Protein 1
Amino acid sequence: MVRTQKIGRNDPCRCGSGKKYKHCCARKESQLSPTAWIAIVGVGLAALAAILFSFTTDTPLTSVNCPPGQVWSIDHGHCH
């Protein structure tokens, strides 16, 4: 069984750059991939679009209180 030692933050980076691991590859390993960012942004835009489309004013106002003896006219947008 082969055991590998865990690399420490202050050890030289294993890529051979000569930098400490914390300033080189440690950042790369903790970042999200470009595909993950695209997915996050896509979901966010879809949610924003759903919220914006839910505020449409094309729905008829059926719960308007008209004076006694009158009814709401959807075609005209006022009581008759």
Protein 2
Amino acid sequence: MTRLYLLIVLVIANADLSAQFYLNASNQLPDNGAKQQSMDIRAADLDQDGDLDVVLANEFQANTILLNDGNGNFTTAIGALPTRIQDSEDVAIADFNGDGWLDLVFCSEDDISLGEQNVHEYYVGSTEGTFTTGPDELADSEANAVITADINQDGWPDLLFGNNGPTTLLLNDQSGSFVQNEDRIPAINRTTQDLLLVDLTGDGHADLIEGNENGNRYFVNDGSGFFTDETAERFPGISNLETRKVVAGDVDGDNDLDLFLCNVAFQPGRNPQNRLFINDGAGNFTDATSTQLPLDLDLTLDAIIIDLDADNDLDIFVANIAGVPQKVYRNDGAGSFEFATTGIFEQNYVREGLGLFAADFNGDGLTDIYLCDRKNPSTNFKDLLLLRAPLTSVVEQESTKRITVFPNPIQDTFYVRGIFNNTAATAQLSDVSGRTLAELNLQRQSDHTYQASWPAQFKSGVYFMKIANTSVKVIKQ
């Protein structure tokens, strides 16, 4: 059956949100696969059935694959991976050998069972999401992070490991085997917890950020996959940070990537306050924490930057440990944040949150959230699967004064949701200067939902609609 999903965008700025945008769907996770010592999560279509499966990197337990039935119901793929008990910390997913199936690399930190070796796990994918041991062992290191990207631009995915020591680069030999390269990234000893590879300078080339326990680093890509350390010039040095995760997003709407640092205080003297760094558009950063982030001294191990409340700006969801709730920082539209957790979720979730991933898990076109809840002997919690609520139901919980236009950006036919007294209503369309362009007829389709057609003479751009004394910003693609 074909299903039609419409994305409804709430466009009332600075409104007091009371609806729940995400609902707990952890009952759709299996008991035998989502109660692990999970350190991190990635999602990909491992069995090529058109939906996203979950891969969990587990500490001193066998790593886990959860297969999706297409509706966000997961089962543990027993026997899909070789059983190895290691201190897995992170996982990278790509087709490393070019056979059309996704492969997996888990990085390992401390492997007691293997003596002094810190052997990373490399598994080659095959039919129906099953995996066998890769062609050779990867270069040994004590790693907390692994990411994959085509560093040398030969069309093959390479590997970067964030280590207790210098970050190491393993170049793919174009067959799925790897050779360590020591020329492209400066060798600087740090205890790295996270790696982020994104274009920060706006030149189209991915730069590298290390999230470290002892001084974060910023390496700029020269365009050919060689990196220089430009931390001192571009990234404010804060000596007392113990960073566990670095995430990027355009939080202030100026078309460049800003940085959010998740911090803890496991080491004496460290400041656990999370940090926000604003990009000037050329890859130079300013610490805006004191003016744009709320004071928060909880221990944060991960975060995602997504539009949680459907108001067209990016919010931040942080994963905390040590008996405190997971939290939402809500964006005011200009890159300043306030706490808004219970306005987004149906309750406060107290979890040992170590890993986060945002994706559409149930195929409804909306972004869901998966949180790894590290197994705690005092609880019986599974991992947390938060499904984005159908936004029509969210709107119904909101004040009757709210108006929504969807989809937004607008297509030739669009819909307005609100409570009017008439079976038909009108909307005044204006440009950004306030000049009235047209009056649009809204035809009632059902309770509180109206349909309209976009005037063909008005092309792509930003417009405003005035409906029932409420001005709504819309975008026409």
Protein 3
Amino acid sequence: MKTISLVLGSGGARGYAHIGVIEELEKNGYKIESISGSSMGALIGGLYACGKLQEYKEWVLSLDMLDIARLLDFSFLTSGIIQGDKVFNKIQEMIGEVNIEDLNIKYTAVATDLIKQKEVWIQKGNIIDAIRASVAIPTLFTPKKISNKYLIDGGVLNPLPMAPTVSDDTDITIAVNLNANNAKKYIIEIPKKEKEKENRFKEIFFELKQKAQSLFEQEQKSEFDEMNMFVIVGKTIDIMQNSVLECKMAGYSPDIMINIANDACDFYEFNRAYEMIELGRVIAKDSGI
């Protein structure tokens, strides 16, 4: 059994692919001893380190439109559209009160200090707070305050955090990049039930769009527009992270890189969980792990 350090990148809803990758790694006999993650990578990695990834997967695949609507706690602050408390209260129900230093797996959640403009490695303290800080996508989630620091999405400064794993005593390092420019296209068979669910969720995203427009005093429209604020923010984040990633990878490189295309889905399309999980599994197989 090969021991691995697993690096999980940021990329919004594409982060569901991490679940498929992890399942394929376990299927092939790898033992994950260390995890470093940014944003959704920190969330999925944290759930795995706590032994709750399967429960989380079952939960997200069971959500319907009404469940999503109940989880959205719109913020009345201009620092973010969603507070995120309802979602993270649910995740805390799964995980419980767990400190990072008590985990059996080495874990690092990477966030960004908004004021000091510095990368922050969270390797101790409450894991829910660490995850919440790392996933605070600018404009979407409100920042998380920890020890007088206002922390936002780790992907802003480090979308694929290799450095925390450099000193690990493991056999190999495997990284999952969610911002790749993949030329190869993969066809994922989606059950009819999941496809219908995806279409219904567009109504939820329309509501989010209206909220975003009201915060920024933009004209509201009465139909779902493909090039809305979330698409623009998502594409901007992808461009920024690709640029940052090139610089970061010049200093550190994994033994195996699993690349998920940045056009697999938009960062806000959390309704495509089934498809992204399966895509992660298929690409992991294709990577020769």
Protein 4
Amino acid sequence: MSLFVDTSVWSLALRRDAPADGPEVTRLREALASQEAIYSTGLVLQELLQGFRGPKARAAILERFAALPLIVPDRDDHVAAAKIRNACRRRGVQLGTIDALFVRLCIRHDLVMLSTDQDFHHAAPHAQLRVWTPG
């Protein structure tokens, strides 16, 4: 299984001020240890760099992301993400612009979303998104 890991899981995994032992973080660690295919995108990297302070945190994030392939969205991805967001909204599911783009990238690249953000679970039935769940 190839995973797309969003900001929520990375943020928990990178924190040093609290234990990060949730099932998504455990799954990420297992995937990293077994060298499974893990993908992310530059937007996740940017969000992490904006959310952590100090040169040590920045260096750790850049080091960890150096080994990951980043998916770069193209014009069609942005158009499809808007369609996904609109379809979710019509069904009463709120999905942010960036999250809709993450959904699109998962669908296009046949990836499973690894996230602690429940918005993806709500959007999944309306967008053909596969979301990892424990168990």
